[in-house]
Design goal:
Blueprint: H1 3-21, H2 24-53, H3 58-63, H4 67-75, H5 92-126, H6 128-134, H7 136-146, H8 149-154, H9 157-162, H10 166-175, H11 189-192, H12 199-218, H13 225-236
Helix pairs in contact: 2-5, 2-7, 4-5, 5-6, 5-7, 6-7, 6-12, 6-13, 12-13
Length: 237
């Protein structure tokens, strides 16, 4: 076989393997990363919006903490200022770009919502047990942090518990700072609702169940998510 024929054959085989290597893990990772980056963009632009809008009506910005509700209030009309407001009078020309920025941020909120719905369907189809125990967003972040579902199930539960806290763990190892007790699973309602002195225990128990759910999903086992949630709550009590 000549070199050119060998090269073409090898190239076709490489392309085929690359195509076949793309799977649901890749779409989960891209979707959750996109959602997280959209969140960063929203927070950055919302901060700019508040600083800009506070030139006119600082009291409203400080009154409404949630970015989405603050934007809805602005776009619903020109909110009335307090009679003793510290804000300055501004022209329609100066107010218009503020409205446009608010509209763009609201569009990002809508976009993020659609992306979250897509990710939820993706997790429901491919990782139903993780979705049930961890939720779509936390579950997808764990898959992304691990690299894929296969790598995730190879971790011990103690590592699953700390995924997302790598910087704090490195700081602990380097400087002797306090060791982290949890990573992204700290955002889970089960950990949030636990008493302060029991959050570490709650995180360990949650990580155990998430890892079990991941193994069942990887090996295409039956749906046991509801049972795992029930066991988690009963054991913690």
């Amino acid at each position: 076989m000549g070199f050119e024929k060998y090269y073409d054959l090898n190239l076709r085989e490489t392309k085929k393997k690359i195509k076949e290597s793309v799977g649901f893990n890749d779409f989960i990772v891209q979707a959750i990363n996109n959602i997280d980056e959209t969140n960063k963009a929203i927070n950055l632009l919302a901060k700019r919006l508040r600083e800009w809008y506070e030139l006119y009506n600082p009291e409203l910005s400080r009154k409404i903490i949630e970015h989405d509700k603050f934007i809805e209030e602005i776009l619903a009309g020109n909110p009335k200022r307090d009679s003793d407001s510290m804000g300055a009078e501004i022209s329609k020309e100066d107010y218009q770009p503020i409205l446009e920025l608010a509209g763009e941020i609201q569009a990002l909120f809508i976009f993020k919502s659609r992306q979250e719905a897509y990710l939820d369907n993706l997790m429901k189809e491919n990782c139903p047990n993780i979705r049930e125990v961890a939720g779509s967003l936390i579950g997808a972040r764990l898959v992304a942090l691990a690299g894929d579902l296969k790598r995730l199930i190879m971790f011990p539960s103690s590592t699953v518990q700390l995924l997302g806290a790598e910087k704090a763990l490195f700081r602990h190892m380097k400087t002797g700072a306090k060791s982290p007790k949890y990573g992204v699973i700290v955002q889970h309602p089960f950990v949030i609702s636990a008493p302060k002195e029991s959050k570490g225990k709650a995180a360990r128990m949650l990580a155990d169940k998430i890892l079990l759910a991941a193994k069942v999903d990887y090996f295409k086992g039956e749906f046991i998510g509801e049972r795992l949630n029930k066991e988690l709550k009963e054991k913690f009590k």
